[in-house]
């Protein structure tokens, strides 16, 4: 039985194929379009999943979409009603997207899989996250905790998974969200929301938590069980296009930092403060989940579960014996969760658990390129290379890394999720004090403060890191062992801010963050034999089986998918060598000429209108349809003139025939006319839409909102209750049958 899982339209759209309960393939749309965090419907990812298993749409038994669009739309409308007359810009931006795309999921699915005849299921957003956490885990029973920005209404949830069922027990609801709180500070510190949260986490250790108490006293009302409400007067994400407002900025006595501007110590202190608050809330939530469920094991998912520092603290300090985190914890992984939810929860199939291995296949679920395909690419493009045997690769690459070369490593199936795990990686020497700056500034083109993760042999993790479990997905941060630390002099001890970057703190300084921590990936022989051999060889020859492993991409681009993507990245950066399968490329031997960007590559545009105009599809079929419509309009207009003036304009008939001739013989000649005409039509439609939506907002939405407020009706629960012991909403006892999941509401 084949089940297709889909997530789309928020960020990191993805598709996956589950076959008889096994995850066969999964990939994010961004890897195909080369548009980072692409939120569009994952048409390319769907096509690849079907192609990989040699399936047609008619062979898909059912499709699971990761949330309920109409329920999300309800939340959107109620939010506008709660804040009107504020929110016009947000309303005008959001409504066209919903009207054009987001409300037509079934139609989009039918369009992309035209022969599909099965059922479409719509689990709720946090059910998809919970399913991705528990059903993919190696646990027969466990508690789960999901935390993100927002789904339909829920922003966090918890419950219990047993065998082939999950049961949600409680949730927090919008607008009170740990993910959105963290994103608000991401925005305030000049980083991009849904992308820059990693930067905020990496910046935090450079500061002190001076503003922790201010955040806890002014911005949030936190209960002992980890539930909370935000004081919404400081936030703008409900009604505006920014995350924070003037009251928020006044609270910290500073305007939002402009992107790419200088980072001050105050910025670093604020980053440390919100990270400390986030960790505190995560720990409290985990403790509450334990007290409610009494389970020994915990599964985590949702975007906040990518906060590896918080995850590490839950594992090290929390009450659970084991913690498993979905490697694609964000919305991409919810596609997997939706499909697994359908297979187990809705179709009641038996779940067999391998307690030694989870169901994610080490996250190696994407496209793969065999050596013959890679060699063909190299020869077609006249690229110089050296062929290595699989036995020689570990030795040769180890030596190159030890000589402080930076290596592009392209092997096997692409990783699913945000982390490179030894298949699409950039590698470097963890012993080198200058390697962090070199890779950040000359290869990744990103901020110098960003830390790098170490890959280490699984059976050697305890020798170098204070971590009580393996970390195959690079989602746990742990302190390095004391014996690896080097003694600092007085000046080094007193270093502040980014000066800390220049201080060598351990014998493996390139992966040791300024707080003596590292985001660890443990590598087993079973998970990645070639990468394991590389680490083992490096350890035997150069003392430490530890190397830098960072994702194979440059700033602003997704992780590479194909040999062409990898070669582009290699040529554009100061990377020294590239290993594509068995073929080693030396930068010095390459002629910097071929940088073939995919034809479908797009740049993000601020205005949806501009993006629509740029992406007008000038296919011959569209041009023919345009000419046919234009010819009919000309003939009708000419007939109208003839009826009233008793004569006909033959030049109009000639024009219609001329256009028709070109459309049949050489439609490409009419492309400029088609594009200009369509662009004008899009501009006119945009103006009309904006005017109509503005009228609807002020004539319909605002009066309803004002009347409701006069009647003391509230659309969002934003009131702080000083007497309440908890803000968790109880879900126990709520029952749903399979028909509930066939609707989008």
Characterise the protein shown here.
- The chain is an alpha/beta fold and 745 residues long.
- Among the domains are: 371-589, Carbamoyltransferase, C-terminal domain (DHBP synthase, Alpha-Beta Complex), CATH 3.90.870; 615-677.
- It is 40% helix and 15% strand.
- The strands form four sheets. It has a nine-stranded mixed β-sheet with strand order 13-21-20-14-15-19-16-18-17. It has a six-stranded mixed β-sheet with strand order 12-11-6-7-8-22. Strands 3-2-1-4-5 form a five-stranded mixed β-sheet.
- A hairpin with a 2-residue loop joins strand 2 and strand 3.
- It is globular and about 100 Å long.
Write the layout of secondary structure elements.
Layout: E1 2-7, E2 14-19, E3 22-28, H1 30-33, H2 43-52, E4 62-65, H3 69-83, H4 88-102, H5 105-112, E5 119-121, H6 125-134, E6 141-147, E7 154-162, E8 165-173, H7 178-188, H8 197-203, H9 212-219, E9 220-222, E10 228-230, H10 246-251, H11 265-293, E11 297-301, H12 308-317, E12 322-325, H13 331-346, H14 371-380, E13 386-387, H15 393-402, E14 407-410, E15 424-429, H16 435-443, E16 453-457, H17 461-464, E17 476-479, H18 490-493, E18 517-523, H19 529-542, E19 546-551, H20 563-572, E20 577-580, E21 583-586, H21 608-614, H22 620-645, H23 650-665, H24 671-710, E22 729-730
Parallel strand pairs: 1-4, 4-5, 6-11, 11-12, 14-20, 16-18
Antiparallel strand pairs: 1-2, 2-3, 6-7, 7-8, 8-22, 9-10, 13-21, 14-15, 15-19, 16-19, 17-18, 20-21
Helix pairs in contact: 3-24, 4-24, 6-13, 7-11, 9-11, 11-12, 15-19, 22-23
């Amino acid at each position: 039985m084949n089940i297709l899982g889909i997530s789309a339209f928020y960020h990191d759209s993805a598709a996956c194929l589950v076959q008889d309960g096994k995850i066969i393939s999964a990939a994010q749309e961004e890897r195909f379009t080369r548009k980072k965090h692409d939120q569009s419907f994952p048409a390319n990812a769907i096509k690849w999943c079907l192609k990989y298993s040699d399936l047609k749409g008619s062979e898909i038994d059912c499709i699971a979409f990761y949330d309920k669009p109409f329920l999300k739309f309800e939340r959107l409308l109620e939010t506008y009603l709660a804040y009107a007359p504020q929110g016009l810009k947000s309303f005008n931006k959001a409504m066209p997207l919903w009207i054009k795309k987001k409300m037509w999921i079934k139609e989009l699915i039918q369009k992309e899989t035209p022969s599909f005849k099965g059922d479409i299921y719509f689990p709720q957003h946090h059910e998809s996250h919970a399913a991705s956490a528990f059903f993919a885990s190696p646990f027969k029973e466990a508690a789960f905790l999901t935390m993100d920005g927002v789904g339909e209404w829920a922003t966090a949830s918890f419950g219990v998974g047993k065998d082939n069922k999950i049961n949600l027990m409680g949730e927090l609801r919008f607008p009170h969200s740990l993910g959105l709180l963290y994103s608000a500070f991401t925005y305030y510190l000049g980083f991009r929301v849904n992308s820059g949260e990693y930067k905020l986490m990496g910046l935090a250790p450079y500061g002190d938590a001076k503003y922790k108490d201010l955040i806890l006293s002014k911005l949030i009302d936190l209960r002992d069980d980890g539930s909370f409400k935000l004081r919404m007067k400081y936030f703008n994400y409900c009604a505006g296009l920014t995350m924070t407002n003037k009251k928020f900025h006044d609270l910290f006595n500073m305007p939002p930092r402009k992107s790419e501007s200088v980072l001050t110590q105050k910025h670093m202190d604020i980053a440390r403060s919100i990270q400390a608050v986030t960790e505190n809330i995560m720990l409290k939530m985990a403790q509450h989940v334990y007290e409610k469920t009494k389970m020994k094991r915990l599964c985590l998912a949702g975007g906040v579960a990518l906060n590896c520092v918080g995850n590490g603290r839950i594992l090290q300090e929390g009450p659970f014996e084991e913690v498993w985190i979905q490697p694609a914890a964000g919305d991409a992984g919810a596609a997997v969760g939706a499909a697994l939810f359908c297979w187990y929860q809705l179709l009641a199939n038996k779940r067999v658990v391998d307690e030694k291995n989870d169901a994610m296949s080490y996250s190696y679920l994407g496209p793969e390129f065999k050596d013959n395909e890679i060699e063909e690419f190299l020869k077609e493009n006249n690229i110089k290379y050296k062929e290595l045997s699989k036995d020689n690769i570990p030795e040769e690459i180890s030596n190159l890394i030890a000589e402080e070369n930076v290596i592009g490593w392209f092997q096997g199936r692409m990783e699913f999720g945000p982390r490179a795990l030894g298949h699409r990686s950039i590698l470097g020497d963890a012993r080198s004090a200058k390697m962090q700056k070199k890779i950040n500034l000359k290869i990744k083109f990103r901020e110098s403060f960003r830390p790098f993760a170490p890959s280490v042999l699984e059976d050697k993790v305890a020798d170098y890191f204070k971590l009580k479990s393996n970390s195959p997905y690079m989602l746990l941060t742990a302190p390095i062992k004391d014996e690896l630390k080097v003694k600092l002099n007085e000046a080094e001890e007193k270093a502040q801010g980014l000066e800390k970057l220049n201080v060598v703190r351990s014998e493996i300084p390139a992966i040791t963050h300024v707080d003596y921590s590292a985001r660890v990936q443990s590598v087993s022989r079973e998970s990645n034999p070639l990468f394991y051999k590389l680490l083992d060889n490096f350890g035997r020859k150069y003392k430490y089986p530890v190397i830098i492993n960072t994702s194979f991409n440059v700033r602003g681009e997704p992780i590479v998918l194909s040999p062409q993507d990898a070669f582009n990245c290699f040529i554009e950066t100061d990377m020294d060598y590239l290993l594509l399968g068995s073929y080693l490329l030396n930068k010095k031997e390459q002629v910097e000429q071929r940088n073939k960007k995919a034809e479908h590559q797009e740049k993000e545009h601020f205005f949806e209108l501009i993006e629509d105009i740029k992406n007008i599809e000038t296919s011959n079929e569209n041009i023919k349809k345009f000419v046919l419509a234009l010819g009919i309009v000309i003939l009708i207009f000419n007939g109208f003139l003839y009826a009233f003036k008793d004569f006909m304009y033959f030049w109009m008939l000639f024009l219609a025939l001329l256009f028709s001739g070109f459309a049949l013989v050489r439609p490409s000649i009419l492309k400029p006319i088609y594009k200009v005409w369509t662009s004008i039509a899009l501009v006119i439609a945009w103006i009309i839409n904006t005017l109509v939506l503005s009228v609807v907002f002020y004539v319909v939405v605002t009066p309803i909102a004002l009347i409701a407020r006069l009647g003391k009706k509230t659309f969002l629960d934003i009131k702080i209750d000083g007497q309440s012991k908890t803000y968790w909403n109880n879900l126990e006892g709520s029952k749903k049958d399979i028909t509930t999941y066939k609707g989008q509401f």
